[in-house]
Amino acid sequence: MANQPNIMDVDWSAIPAPVDDGGAAHLPGTAVPPMALRATDGGSVTLAALTGRTVVFAYPRTGEPGKIAPVDDWDMIPGARGCTPQTCAFRDLFAELKAAGADQVFGLSTQSTTYQAEMASRLHLPFAVLSDEALELTRALNLPTMQVAGMTLIKRMALIIDDGRISHVFYPVFPPDRNAADVLEWLKANRR
Known about the structure:
Blueprint: E1 36-39, E2 44-46, E3 53-58, H1 83-92, H2 94-99, E4 104-109, H3 113-122, E5 129-131, H4 136-141, E6 145-148, E7 151-154, E8 157-162, E9 165-170, H5 179-189
Parallel strand pairs: 3-4, 4-5
Antiparallel strand pairs: 1-2, 1-5, 3-8, 6-7, 8-9
């Protein structure tokens, strides 16, 4: 993040890939708890109350161009690098995800809504990003997390939620910019 002028230009072969630590194995079949999360569109979203198929992609934290990473070796933390490329891929494939059966698409991180709103505006996102800054959803679902610079960050993943219940999990996700295409392929193969 800190040493590259364009956060979208990443040599994924130079970035360590995360390993499947089993941290998401318990999620398929789990009901999402009924809690409201603040959204970048100014409202709040209760994932448990949504009907239809919802795609939620989670990421540790997006960076801001020209800003320093939270720690010097951010890029060397498996799964840390790539939040903006992942988010942009979901933006770019948004219409196709909807056409393949995603009734709703959301991003999710533990960053504040204010921080997320800057990113959502800058990247022209057609979907809201949800804030779990208080870690309520993260703890209730026991989502896999990492500790970096005193922050609890959600490890990168994508959830398919059907009528309030997690039906599929993409975890770990690498490279991040391919996550949206993998979700799209799954949606096309698993139409409701």
